[in-house]
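Why do we bother with holo predictions? Because pocket geometry can differ from the apo form. Keep that in mind while you read this record for 26V.
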Amino acid sequence: MEHFDTPNELKQRLSAVTAARFSKTPEACTDAELCQALLALTQQLAAARPAPAETKNGRKLYYFSAEFLMGKLLSNNLLALGLFEPVRDLLKTMGRSLADLEEYEPEPSLGNGGLGRLAACFLDSIAALGLPGDGVGLNYHYGLFRQKFCENKQCEQPDPWLTPESWLLPTGRRYTVAFGGFDLDAVLYDIAIPGAQQCTAGRLHLFDVADPAPAPAQGIDFDKRDVAHCLTSFLYPDDSTRDGQLLRVYQQYFMVSAGAQLILDELAQRGFAPETLGQHVAIQINDTHPSMVIPELIRLLTARGLPFADAVAQVEAACAYTNHTILAEALETWPLEFIGTVAPQLVPILRQLDALARTRSGDARVAILDADDRVHMAHMDIHFTHSTNGVAALHTEILKTSELKPFYDLYPEKFNNKTNGVTFRRWLQVCDPALAGWITARIGDGWTRDAAELEKLLPFADDDASLQSLLEVKAHNKRRLARLLQSRQGVKIDPDSVFDIQVKRLHEYKRQQMNALWVIWQYHEIKAGRRPARPVTVLFGAKAAPAYTMAKNIIHLILCLQTLCETDPDVRPWLRVVMVENYNVTWAEALIPACDISEQISLASKEASGTSNMKFMANGAVTLGTMDGANVEIAQLVGPDNIYTFGASSDTVIDLYARGGYCALDHYHRPGVEYLVDFLLSPALLAIGDAATLHALWQDMKYKDWFMALLDVEDYIAAKTRALAGYEDRAAWAKKMLTNIARAGYFSADRTIAQYNAEIWHL
Ligand code: 26V
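The structure, written out:
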């Protein structure tokens, strides 16, 4: 850990930076300048750290991911450097606060949601465990779009996160990537990832084009055919057109070709021959976006003289694949013709791999190339890696028994589960210092190194004073969120109301629309004179993919309900709906510590794991959820008294899909449901919203409802009613909070990464 003998020494280092940059003392700097100076100082210290020592067997890990949703780095890295408290205290003596300065740090949003944030948590844990391993990805100039609400609808604006203060370190390294018809240089930048409790740092390697396009004049549109300049412009370019899809393939090949060259370079530098790749390299393929690393490495190894079969064996020994979803529409397949355009050199290899796979199994369902010559990326991954893992126990079971069953029958030994985890450094220590202090005051700080120690809190479930002060911590965090909402969005919320929070990507399977139906139910109850025991504030945060109409329609509904409740004097004192604009990691860090009820209401079987459920739990929120993803494991850990579950089981849902047995209209025609759905077309709502949008949504809910919100909505209302009643017994609720925190240790990403290492990477 970085060590400054005295606070004075820290102050001197900071003064040197502010003097050099701004010719000022730290005291004379504005918050923005002080933020820049601290970023620069932290970056210097992180970058100066060496990589972890090579392990005895000489294996090194490369975590390939198209997304790394890092969030702001200042506080997190101060913590890893052992400087979080010294800097906070120093700033305090200057009458400044770290939280105020942090407002000026741009947030790198190089990810869409759970998958990208998981990759960021994993890098943090890999570094904290001192494992030799780096991330490999792309340096998008615009991260996920910035969301604005205009006339109760989502508008997208570009997110230019790159500034001179960004954490990117030029490395001077570059590789040439050969595309069909032209070559492009991949320039390597690094972000240093200091490991907590270590003196070492890992690296996030981000590749960029040498001559990136300037900012788009307007909106988030750009020329998708100008690959040489636009390849790294945007995270997930809109792929509703052929050009957009092709650009995705260009991005993927650029990332893996440069990454594969880097791996082979480092292998040689470490003194190992290419034919020992499988022994000395571990590659984790995060979903199918980096899957072309398999044929690319085979190509590079054969070019170095390895026979094809040996190259395949080495790659299979090095690579492992993580599956993050069972949604059919999210499982990537590319027309072989696309690969022929982007990377024609891979086409013969893909054909050979397909032929090889067909010798292992005659089952057409496990082929790599289908009858339409589409490449099934996940199929290639399973055949030609040594490990396929799901991300929660239920998810892995579903992969084995239904979604990927033919593969499981073929390769049972390859399948394994790695239940996701989150870094408690960012998601508890940094974002919830009040709770972190409350925990440490009771069980010491061992939990910051080993989250399993949180179990030591369990005996405090019978300590009234501790329970009382736990409630005060939550109240403090709720007031903090209320202040933030007031300053960022001009909305004033009541910290004494129940904070019921659903924050995650907007997707029909996550069923924000079912939560909206609850709002409609509660609205009617209040109108009928049946008020809740205490006011409820329902908070939403969600971005919809720009081309995903139904998701945008649901955002419209939520924003209309927000206006409806705000402007009705009967309702507003009892029910508020607040949708935060531009939900991102920074918002999450304020929302999660303030949450009372954590909404995890996906249709059972559809949410592979979820990770916000873990963050909420660790911050003392009680889950209201379906038995889906990691909710199942949360329920097992906390027991039925400390979670509110409801809804159809995954078995029931899988069976309904299998036999086409779900009919939305049947469920609509129930007295408790029909009026909720029809409210979408009520004069009250039509006076606020857009008739065509509300009508489209109404029609979809009534006649389609592909994710079965109407199947579960009554059970959901009943469960939420139980949860809100439970909240009123404050002592009993505090026990639930405490039990959730105490049992959350299992969901530390340090545990997950230790398992990846013990069972897959063997570093
Ligand atoms: C991707 C797409 C792309 C096309 C349109 C529809 C669609 C729907 C879902 C996805 C998800 C891609 C994979 C993903 O982000 N999975 C998430 O991974 C998290 C980390 O493992 C996990 O916690 C979430 O449950 C899972 O949804």
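The longest strand covers residues 182-194.
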